[in-house]
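Margin note: ligand = glutamine.
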Amino acid sequence: MHDLSVAELAHALRSREFSSTELTRHCLQRIRSLDPQYNSFISVDDAGALAAAANADARLAAGEQGPLLGIPLAHKDIFCTTGLRTSCGSKMLDNFVPPYDATVTRLLRDAGTVLLGKTNMDEFAMGSSSETSFYGSTRNPWDTTRVPGGSSGGSAAAVAARLVPLATGTDTGGSIRQPAAFCGITGLKPTYGRVSRLGMVAYASSLDQGGPMARSAEDCALLLNAIAGLDPLDSTSSAHPVEDYTAQLRQPLTGLRIGLPREYFGEGLDTATGDRIHAALALLEQQGATLVDITLPHTELSIPTYYIIAPAEASTNLSRYDGVRYGYRCEAPRDLHDLYTRSRQEGFGDEVKRRILVGTFALSAGYYDAYYRKAQQVRRLIRQDFLDAFANVDIIAGPTTPGPAFGLGAKTSDPLAMYLEDVYTLAVNLAGLPAMSVPAGQAAGLPVGLQLIGPHFDEARLLNVAHQLQQASDWHRQAPVEASS
Ligand code: GLN
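Resulting structure:
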């Protein structure tokens, strides 16, 4: 059961091969027996899941046909879930039980999905390894001495280990794509504004975007269909028309122009990873695509630019955690000032504090022009690089990460080394573009991800290219050894 795709599961549910309750029990059983070695879940909601499954079974029995009806899934623990703790990987929100659903959560609940639980993540989505979680590190199912990537590492590990067929993630600077690459699954970061941010705990509001993580492009398309669209309650969500993201999956790739940015294939790219990327590109070429050399000249500025803008926005977003309204409150505060400072000191971890300090500094009166305003100007140049490139190519391709999953603890004492992991993913968020990571085989037994980047709102094209690649290869079907048992 756990090896079936979402489309196959939906078919089996409709033809009564098994019920949603049986499927849900199977997933819960796998989580119980296998997850202790991965730590991919922060909360598992057995009772809620079985109730949702019973409800889905009743709807199926009544003849309802929804493509996600009765399908189990997991949400990154950044999406608010009514009555179920939403911790964002932080001690600050360890006791936070939301009174409302995120729009993404609500849409998927209405579609009849079965929420199994909430997945582990870097604290407040700040990180590239899922090691900063208050609930301990998640481990990569391909090699449990290695990180699953971050910040949506719990979702990626749970999907890779076949604990759940489908999960949500969020991507501020790569947090869907990078863990998807490290865990050998498929992940899509939609165009900024394509998916509502309401009820998604805010990290950097001009960059954050939620999206699907699954084993195949087709499964990602099914999930995106359910969550994309204008949300009147999120003023930054887009009114751009929503497509049926499964409709174009089978289009041939003849005539497709794929741009290869020279900056993504230079120094710093691990050789074996580069070889896998070239092999995947060759497969796309065989299907009729042409490869075109392009340049994105401001690529090297994306790390400094992102690491000013994201912390600046984080420092203002995280000011709401003051020990007063909700979240962690210190014991026996002496006065109001002590309440604020000690609650934040005790409630936040080191990486979050580092971001708040950097962001507050970049926004302070004397430095705003030199850092924040300058970063916004460079952001515009980075965006323009992509717009210029898309005048000549349909999509852009390259590696998702410079190398495969690194060891647990390998970069925790060196924040800059950790930030360098994001070199190929950050610019996409600064430009607001959609992008995917798709499995491209393995280097030394560890998965490699091919990144596909599209023009604004061209998710359907990315999914089409990824699906065609998955028709011609079996990389997305490869599973870590223990997970396939
Ligand atoms: N690694 C990046 C950061 O730490 C991106 C994280 C994300 O996309 N949420 O900010």
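Residues 30 and 163 are 6 Å apart (CA to CA).
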